[in-house]
C-alpha cells in the first residue's frame, strides 16, 4: 500500500532548501507521478529513460516550428524535467539510489535540453529564415553543451565527494582552501537559478503561450556564453574542480585509516 501524498513528500523529497518554484510547483506535481509509478515495478532508471523519450518528442515539436508546436514542445520539455525529479523520489522511497543512476540521470537530462535548444534553433530559423538565428543557436548550443555537460557532470562528481565527506565525517574547517571552495561552489549552484533546467522549462512554457519564445531563445543565447566565460574564469583563476576533488579524495583517504584505528 503506497502512502498518502503528504507522507510521500516526507519520505521521497529532499529535506534541504530548494528554490521556491521547485518546492511549490515541480515537487507538488512530481509527487503525484511518483505515487502512480510506485504501484508499478518501474525502476528509477526506467523513469529516467521515460523522461528522456518525452524530451525527444518535445524536440520533434520544436523542430517542426509553429505556435502550437512550440507550446506542445515546451509542455513536454517541462514534463520531461518533472520526470527528472520523479526518478529521484522513487529511488529514495525504494532506497535504490546509485552512482550509476545519478550519472545516467544527469547525462540524459542535460542531453534533453541540448536537443531542445538545437531543434528550437531549426524551428525558429524555418519560421524567420534569418541567419542571425543560426548564429545565436550556435552560440546557445555550443555554450550550453559545455556548460551543462561539463559543469554539471563535474558538479555531480563533486556531490558524490560531499557524500563521502558526510560518511567519513571529515572536518572541512581544517583547511581554509577546502572550506572556501565548498562555499563558492554552493553559491554557484544556488544563485544561478536562471540556468536551472526546471526554470528554463517553465520559462519556455510561459513564453510560448505568450508567443515570446523567440525572445527567451535570444536571452539564453547570450546568457549561456556569459555563464560559460564565468565558468572558465573560475577554472583558470580559482583552481577549478579538479584541485578541489583531488584535495577531497586526499582527506578521505587520510580519514579512513584514522577511523579504522579508533575501532
Description:
By secondary structure, the protein is mostly helical. It has a single domain (5-262), classed as Four Helix Bundle (Hemerythrin (Met), subunit A) (Up-down Bundle), CATH 1.20.120.1760. It has helices spanning 5-12, 20-37, 44-64, 67-94, 99-128, 131-168, 176-191, 197-209, 213-237, 240-262. Helix 3 packs parallel to helix 5 (99-128), helix 5 runs antiparallel to helix 6 (131-168) and helix 6 (131-168) packs across helix 9 (213-237). The longest helix is centred in the middle third of the chain and has 38 residues, at 131-168. It is globular. Residues 172-180 and 258-263 have low confidence and may be disordered.
Structural key phrases:
263 residues, Four Helix Bundle (Hemerythrin (Met), subunit A)
Report how far apart the termini are: 41 Å
Largest sheet: none
Top-tier CATH class: Mainly Alpha
The CATH superfamily bears the name CDP-alcohol phosphotransferase transmembrane (TM) domain
Briefly characterize the structure.
By secondary structure, the protein is an all-alpha fold. It has ten helices and no strands.
